[in-house]
Every structure is written in C-alpha cells, then in structure tokens.
Specification:
homodimer; 4 domains; 8-stranded antiparallel sheet; 5-stranded antiparallel sheet; 19 strands; globular; transit peptide (chains A, B); FAD-linked_Oxase-like_C (chains A, B); flavoprotein (chains A, B); Oxid_FAD_bind_N (chains A, B); oxidoreductase (chains A, B)
C-alpha cells in the first residue's frame, strides 16, 4: 500500500514548470524531475508519509544555492534542503510542492584548523566521513546521532545522540555558519573566535531551524583531541529504577562520562536477535569513559560503585577499539533491530527529554503505559541528558493500531511536558510534532512565527514544518 | 568637567510627563524622577558618556514589568533595563530618553533544583549572592566576569570571564528565560530539560541581545558540583610569546584548566601597587585546576611541564581557599589597579577575541602598537579562549589623547577581525562598538535588524544599542 501525503501545491503546474525551466537553465543535468529521484527525496526515515518534490537540484557551491533560491523566490516556489535523509519527523517532505535542494554534492572538508580545534565543512559531509578524514590529525568530532547523517542536517535539527552528555549537542559545537537567506542573500553568522558578544546569536538561531529560515551551505565545527584513553562498559540491572538511579547519581556526582545509554530488556533482546549478540536480557547501561589512563580508571571505578549500590551486575569491560566499536554498532542498530521484530512493520520513534530528577518517573510511567496498551516498544535512551526513545513497532495497514500508537505517543509527550520536559530532545519538530509546539512553548511560538515571517515573508523555506503560518 | 551624551528624546516633554504619570499610578513610590537617581542610572562602568533617563522604576514581578512595558508602548516611551550597572560599553544610557527599569529589587533565588543541577533566579540576583546562597548545597555557578554583576545583566551581555575556558559562557549556561516582549506579552523560552530540538532557540537569541528585544525577568541557570579539589598557580615568563604559547599548547592538549589568565608585566606592576602584593614584574599566567585530587595533580603537572618548555619560572601554588581567593581578588582588581596608575584618569577597556592560533600574533602586534603609541595600557586576558583586554588609562580632558586612544582601539579591532576574531569577546556592543558591527558581520547585520524590527517594531527596547535603525 503506497501511501503518500496529500501535497497542497502552492503553484499551478504551469507556474511550477516555468520555475523548473529557469532552474534547468542554471543547472542542466544537475536538476532532475525523474520520478525515482523525486520519490527518494520526498521522505526521510520517519513515520511521516512521503511527499515528493516537483524537482530535485544538486548544487555545488554556496553561490549556486543562492542563485537557486533567488529563482525560486522570483517564482514563488518552495525550497526544501535535503541531506542524508535520515531525519525522523518528516523534515524533508515537499508538503506544498517545490524544489528539493540536495546538498550531498557539497561534501568537501574545506579546512582543518588543527591549532584552533575547528574545521570548516560543506553541509553534505557526513559525520563518519569527517572523522575518517580527521583520524591522522589526532582530532575528532564527537556528536553522534547514530545514523551517518550529514552535518548540514545535524545542524538543522539540532542533533545530539550518545555522547552529548559529555560534549554537548550541535547547539554547543558549531562556531559559525554560512547561510543563504530566503531572498538569496548570503550571510556568515560569526567569525571563528571561540566566543563573542557581538550582536544577536544568529548561529544558534539557525541551529535547529530545520531549513525554515535559510539554507546552510558552510559550517565551522568545534573539534576535540582524541582522548588518550577510552573504555566502554556494560552493566545489567533487574529493575529499571536501579539503572536510572545509577545514571542520575553519576550525573549529579559530576562524573564526566562520555556516554551513558540505557536499553531495556525488550531492546536488549531485539539487539541480540538482530546483531547476533548474547547480551543479558535485562535492563542495561552502556557506558563510555574518555580521559587520561588514570582519569578513565577513576571514573569507571566511581560509576561501578554507584551501579553496585543500585543492584548493577555483570559490569563488563571493552577497552579494545574493536570491542568498543562492536558494542556501539549494536547500540546504533537498535532501531533496525526493533523493525526486525515484526515482519512488514514500521517504527514510530518517540523522543522526549525531561529534567533528570524526573527521568525515573517518566520512564516507569511510560513502561506501564506500554504494557497496558499492549505495544511492542523497546526503549533506549541518552539518559545522562534525560532523553529517551521508544521504537514503537507498528503495522501501518492496521488503522486501529495506528490510532492506539498515536494516542500513546500523545500521552508520552504530555507526560514529559508535565515534568518540565520537551516533546523532542533531539529529533526535531518537522511535520510530526507540530501539534505539540504550542503545548510546549505557549506564547513563545508567536515570537518564533514573527521571526519566520521577518526572514521568510513568503514562507518559501521548507513550508509546513515546525509550525503552520 | 561633567560630560553627558546628547540625548535625542523621542517624545516631547509633555508626552514624556504623561507617560510617567501613568507609570506613577501603577508604581507610586517605586518610580523616581529625582536627579541623583536618574544620574546614577544613566551610566555604567564604561567609557561611554552618561545619559540619564527621564524616570527610573523599580518593579517587583514579571507581571509588573509587563504592565510597565505596556504603558511605555502605549505612550511610545523607550525602556532601558538596568542591573548592577557594571557593563562596559555604554549599554544602559538613555540615549533617546525614556524609562529605566531597575531590576535589582527582583533579586530572589526562586528555586534550587539540586538534583537537576539548575536554579531559577530573578534577574537582579548578583553572582556572588547566588554562590553564597548555594554554598551549603555543594553546587556553584561558575561564570565570573570579575564584577559582581547581576545575572540578568550577564545574560543580556552574553558575559563570560575567567573560567569560561572550562565552563563556557552565559551562552552555554542558561536553560530557560522568562521575557517581557516589547508589547508586554510574557513568554518563556524553554522548558527545563537539558536539551531540546523543539523550535527556534529563543533562549540563545535573548542571551546577548542587550535589552533590545525584551526584558528578561526570570532565568534558569545550570549549576555544577563544587569540585572535590581545586588548586591555583602562578608562573612567570620573560617573554609574552612564552606565556601565550604555553596557553595555546595547554588548550590544544585538551587539559581541562578551569582558569588560565595572562597578565603582562605592566599589569603585574599595577596590581602590586594597588593590591599590595609582590608578584614578579613579568608576564604571568594565573591558573586554576578543578577536579578530583588525582585529576588536579595530573593537570597541574602537565601544564607545569609545558610552561617549563616555554621558559616559565617560579611556578607557585595556592591550594588553600584563602590564598586562591586573594590571588583572584587581585586579578579582579586589575581594572581598578590600572585606574590608580594615573590620578584623575579613566579606563577605556578594550575586548577582542581571536582564534587561539592567532593569539600570540595579535597580542604581540598590539603590544608593539601600545609602545609606539606611547600609551599606558596594561594587558590581561582570558587567554584560553583567545580573549584579551587592554585597560587604556586615559585623561578624558585631553582631546588629543582621546583621539589617540580611539585610533588605537580601532586598529586593535580591525587587527582582530583580520585574524577571524571578534570586536568583543564578552563586553558586548552597547553603544561603544556599534561602528564595528557591520565590519564584523557584514550582511548578517541586516538579518539582526529584521529580527529587531519584527519583535520591537517601534524600537522602544533600549534604542540606540547594538545598531541604529
């Protein structure tokens, strides 16, 4: 059953054709209207229904993106930026038709400033590509959302992931951006100094703006020295409370863990089946420590002591790079492992984040809800930040099941908001969570809308995402 | 000679009186038009000429601030927020007349969420007051700009200071804000979760907006556990290069120093005279290390080895709290020590920040310029971030000297910009650095202006700061 979202085209077919013809003149073969190309660009990895654009363009420079945006602005045609397509809330669907700008040909690493611990990249560089490139410099870029996302996409969604607990999110790790505005102006948001008090923080405004304010065409990222020592560990718990309370105390004690991930028993079982591992089918923490040899040992001992106090068992170590890699591969395969649980089913990924003092409450209430509702929904979490996901396995062809899952998801969001949390810790709003934005931000949404209208008065930049206008 | 800035009043005296009468009805004795009160609120600690407001009001709640702003909006009267008055670029002068909102009666610490490592405060709380209040909780708020500033002011100017190298600036340490917008709407920018991908980052937009977009009336700040161990050290160098290169290598090695401050020989001499110390009259680094006992020792050994490689001498320790306190008091008194160098003179504080790879170049070129120009200008710097200040001692009554200093300051800014740095690392733009904003940000300033116009269409919020409209 090939479902698509009902697009509400802004232009008539003739007006769209005229705009595309103008773009074709600029781009030649780097514009495609082939159905498979459009289909591929009309969806991400989310639960959102696909909605293909009218055309896809493949620019190779900031200036070319500016020309494209100017042509689209002149014709009133919407513009949607596209990276690796790994977003999770329907960020890239062409809900009002328009042109998708595929930025993956802009995949150059422009300059490593090793002394300054920063790097300038184009938006189509993927995070694994960047770290492979950096390996010989002794530096790395830590942010790791799991998927091998493009860095432009990671900026746009304010991505984070497993080691944000130590290194922060994209919010903390971008120094400067080059952005093409809705009218084709090119701006640079900041110089390369590590801090500045000069004017409004446009860098942070564009981070997480999901392509609704401009197209990001160049990114200056912070880098870090590869730690002298790294060690990973797993630890199992009979109860979820034990695992979560270990996390809470680790954070409160200020132990600078690099990663502290929770997997529940359902998830551990799914990973065993998918990744052919033999994890204990229990609630589990996966940890990583970065530092000097002595520092890593000290951190690990402190966490192990806290875990023991809360019923932690089977503290197992992985110090070899290959063992660590296998463990984190298994963690990153969690979503695919969930999908494999029921043939022909899809995953609806949830993503709330609460103050850590409420994390145990939020997880336990949610697990009760899963059991009562009868869902298959493994839980994983970047719990050091209070952020967790359920991968709800769902048969989209069963309307009753869809209804049940959507009601569950809504209860989860309101539970998190009630606990002073957010409806999305890291996936973003896209089209999937628009309905929760006002519940979370209230009157502040009117300020967001005013900014959107000021910077994109014709609502051409990724329209229908974050909020409707 | 009592210089004041020539205010360009927006309203006629009669219209101003009508607005003030309406405010008086709301506030009674918490509104003052007494000349000394107006004078006191018409200046900060900067070089900018004072410009008193027409009245000063002292609200005690967010709702009252909203009422004040609504009355001012209805009358077209400008509104200037005021905290401790320690800003350094003329942020609080009433250049177009209007009402100053003194927020120092809103000085309550509303809620410590110790488990979540955060605290909710009113904007008039000062940083020392907060840390005294927190002492028994084992937590602290690290950001330390030197002056005992109000937290509202620190948010508004994106302040940082000595230990930003470890803990970040205000940009990284605010979780959420309550803001009164130009039309009196009250918004809250974020929930209390540690991270979120839900909509535009309004928190960061208001941080550093210097009162030009709204009045901050409540702040949720991140807190940190007081480290198990702290140690401070000083080290002297014959050459500036030796000191600066020690800093650069410390940062590049990823050693998590909590503070790493540079003072040149001129500054060391000034501090000796003012604070009655016997620091060696040489270029000096002042360092602080935070961590476990073992971690602090490890960090300190690594830095000491780097310093020795660059000619560092007299590595001296201060592990007792009182010795550390005395050392940092002396550092914080640096500006006053400079002022004491020449009777009847004032200080013009500069504040550039460059990528750390350019720090030695920038400092050395600047010191050459000081010598050539014949200025008395001690240098201090938060050099771990690439940020440094010169306190230029200046006789305002000597027009030739003023001209010389202003030309020097302009050369310094352009030198920093040429090195991909910023015209202000932490003091802000205020009125003092408006002329450099476009040199630094180019076309991006038009985006800042568009946001300002969207959120404050009548330009009533601290007009004449950051940019003219």
């Amino acid at each position: 059953m090939a479902l698509v979202a009902a697009a509400q085209h802004r232009l008539t077919p003739a007006a769209t054709d005229a705009a595309i013809a103008a773009l074709k003149q600029l781009l030649g073969e780097r514009l495609s209207t082939a159905q498979p190309v459009r289909d591929q660009h009309g969806r991400d990895e989310s639960w959102a229904l696909p909605s293909p654009p009218d055309a896809v363009v493949f620019p190779d420079s900031t200036e070319e993106v500016a020309e494209i945006v100017k042509i689209c602005a002149a014709h009133g045609l919407p513009v949607i930026p596209y990276g690796a397509g790994t977003s999770l809330e329907g960020h890239v669907t062409a809900l009002q038709g328009g042109v998708t700008i595929d930025l993956m040909q802009m995949n150059q690493i422009l300059k490593v400033n090793a002394e300054d611990l920063d790097v300038v990249v184009q938006p189509g560089v993927r995070r694994k590509q960047l770290n492979e490139y950096l390996r010989d410099t002794g530096l790395f870029f830590p942010i790791d959302p799991g998927a091998d996302a493009s860095l432009g996409g990671m900026v746009s969604t304010r991505a984070s992931g497993t080691n944000a607990v130590r290194y922060g999110t994209m919010r903390e790790n971008v120094l400067a951006l080059t952005v093409v505005m809705a009218d084709g102006r090119i701006i640079r948001t900041s110089k390369r100094a590590k801090k500045s008090a000069a004017g409004y923080d446009l860098t942070r405004l564009f981070i997480g703006s999901e392509g609704t304010l401009g197209i990001i065409t160049e990114i200056t990222l912070k880098l870090y020295g590869i730690p002298e020592a790294m060690a990973a560990a797993t630890c199992s718990f009979d109860t979820l409370e034990g695992a979560v309370n270990t996390v809470i105390q680790t954070i409160q004690a200020g132990i600078p863990v690099a990663r502290i991930e929770l997997l529940d028993d359902v998830q551990a079982d799914a990973i065993n089946k998918y990744s052919k591992l033999d994890l204990p089918v229990q609630n589990m923490l996966m940890l990583e420590f970065h530092g000097t040899e002595a520092g890593v040992a000290e951190q690990a001992e402190m966490v192990q002591a806290l875990a023991s106090d809360h019923g932690g068992q089977n503290f197992q170590w992985a110090t070899k790079a290959e063992d660590r890699a296998r463990m984190w591969e298994a963690r990153h395969a969690a979503a695919y492992a969930c999908k494999a649980l029921r043939k022909g089913c899809e995953i609806m990924a949830t993503d709330v984040c609460v103050p850590i003092s409420r994390l145990a409450d939020c997880i336990i209430e949610t697990k009760d809800d899963v059991v009562k509702t009868g869902l298959v929904a493994p839980l994983v979490g970047h719990v050091g930040d209070g952020n967790f996901h359920l991968s709800v396995v769902i048969d989209r062809n069963n309307p009753k099941e869809v209804e049940t899952v959507e009601a569950f998801s809504e209860r989860l969001v309101h539970r998190a908001l009630r606990m002073d949390g957010t409806c999305t810790g890291e996936h973003g709003i896209g089209s999937g969570k628009m309905k929760y934005l006002t519940a979370e931000h209230g009157e502040a949404v009117s300020v967001m809308r005013a900014i959107k209208k000021a910077l994109d008065p014709d609502n051409l930049m990724n329209p229908g995402k974050i909020f409707s206008l």
